[in-house]
Every structure is written in structure tokens, then in C-alpha cells.
Amino acid sequence: MKIVEHHLVQLAAVIETGGVTEAAAMLGMTQSAVSRTISILEKRVGEPLFVSGRRPMQPTPLGEQLGLQGKAILASSRKAMEIIRSFKSGSSGRVRIGGVPFFMDAVISPMIASFQRDEPGIMVHQSYGNYPELVSELESGQIDLAVTPTGSVDLNADHHFEPLLPARNVLACGTGHPLVRKRSLATEDIVNYPWVAPLPGSPLVLDLHNILLTLGLEEVSIRYAGGSLLSLINYLTGTDALAILPLSVAHSFRRENKISVIPLDIPQPERALGIMTKKKPYSNPAGRKFMGHLRREFSELRRVLEKHEREIDWAHGPFMAERKGGA
């Protein structure tokens, strides 16, 4: 004997509403269709499912037990419809985002937090990687989008890149570093202090080489390498070391009074930071809503950083003359 699930759903509706007509209205069916289903179900089980002559309709013990199963199916069906509606509206679901480590920790994680204050039903999974790893993860479907710096020559034909913020680096140090207050900077000022190396694979590695090339130097003294962003900040606060950081990352620590920006105009990379996705991603309304949030946050961040740059009293002196002469 096979019981059809939607027959149990109709039985549960009759029990819940107390009548066939009412159940039909609740389910969007005709009264005759629901009545026929109850009749078929009683014949199939060989037992009455409702007490005869009772109004509102009262289930027999067997009818009540079968009705509980139908109620569970009905509840699951309603829940499924809620999930579908919520998914299509972008109010629930999952977003998997990958990005370069320092920027994810300093800038993107607060953006995720502000997003989820308004969208608590969306789960965000964050991972780390540099450009090659992020491209691979996009292609394999491990992430939905990447936040990464890249130049036009790096772009893959299968991916879409939306630039949101021009790359801008600064020299960073601990608060109170002697170079912060020095108005005339020479090459030896940079050479005489130890440096923190950028993470392996980071585009900041190439940026550091470009700075050295501009200065006509082969290398600087690297004393610390491989640490996380928090490790780097803690190291800078306890030493006179220097590090190259994205302006947006350095700016994110402005309220903590741990690091400062040395007001020195350094060679800047020809790339932008933005959102990279597959050109034909699978449907993910939550992901589209999250990207809209990132666009708004980046727009405000860009405005704030441009204002911050205008407020910095950039140093002029021998270094600037060397920089211009070697450009």
C-alpha cells in the first residue's frame, strides 16, 4: 500500500481548518478535489479517518496520526517556499569571498560586519589568497567573488574585474618614529632603518622593489617577515622598522594610535583594487546584494582616503629631488 504525500497534506489541512471547504480554500484547490482525496485515502487505508457527523470535522485516532505526518509535510513545504522567497530576494544564502590578507583583515572584515547588521540571514565565508590563488578558486567554484588588486594586463578573459579603488601605498612606521617629524628626507634616512618584508606573493613585494629601484638601491635591511597584519602592527609599534602598506590599510588603524604614515611621496603601482567575479556566475542574489554593499562602502572609503591624502603634509627635500631625477 502506497500513501501519496500530497494526500496527507490535504488530510492535515482538513483537520487544521475543520472542514473540506475551508481546507480547499487554504490549499488553493476545489472542494470536490479535496473531498475526493479524503475518500481515496480512506479506501486505501481501509479505515475511516473522520468521526461521522461531527462538525467541525473531527479525526479518528488513525486520521489524527496520519494528519500529523501530513502536517509535517505541509510545514516542510511552507518552509521550502520561505527559503525560496528569501533566497530570491537576497535575504538569505551564503557568500564566499576571497582576498589579499592585509586588505581583508583591515578593510573588508568591517564591511562584512556592517553588511550583516542589515542582512543577518546571509552567511559570509572569508578566505585568503593572492591573485593567482584567487583566480584558481574562482574557476573551481570555491569562492563567489574576490577582492584583489590587479592591473589590466593580469586580467583573465573568463573573469570580470570592477575597479573600485586606485592602489595607493605609503611608508608606515610606529607612532613616534623619528622620520615622521623630519621635514627633509634623504636616501640614507630610508636605508638606515630596518624593514618589514611584505608577505610572499603579495604585490607589495614588487612595489618595494620599485621603491628601491627609484632610490638606486639594491636592497634594504629586512629584519622581520611572514607575519600577519596584527603581527606587523605590533612589530612596528615596538621598533623603528619601516613597512610599505596600502594607504587604506594604514588608515584603518588611525584611531588606535599605533602606526603613523611617513609623509613621503613614493612610486605608486599601476593597478586598482576591486571585485573580480566569473563572467557567467551562478545565480546568487545574496552575492549580488553583498557586492552592492561593497560598492557603496568603497565609494565612501575612496572619498575619505582622498580627503586624508590632501590633509597630509607631504615632505619635500633631497629625496624628492632624487626621485624626480631618477624617474
From TrEMBL:
One of its GO terms (cellular component) is cytosol. Keywords: DNA-binding, Transcription, Transcription regulation. It comes from the Bacteria. GO terms for molecular function: DNA binding; DNA-binding transcription factor activity. Pfam families: HTH_1, LysR_substrate. Residues 1-60 form the HTH lysR-type domain. PANTHER family: HTH-TYPE TRANSCRIPTIONAL REGULATOR YBHD, NITROGEN ASSIMILATION TRANSCRIPTIONAL ACTIVATOR-RELATED. Belongs to the LysR transcriptional regulatory family. This is LysR family transcriptional regulator. It comes from Metarhizobium album.
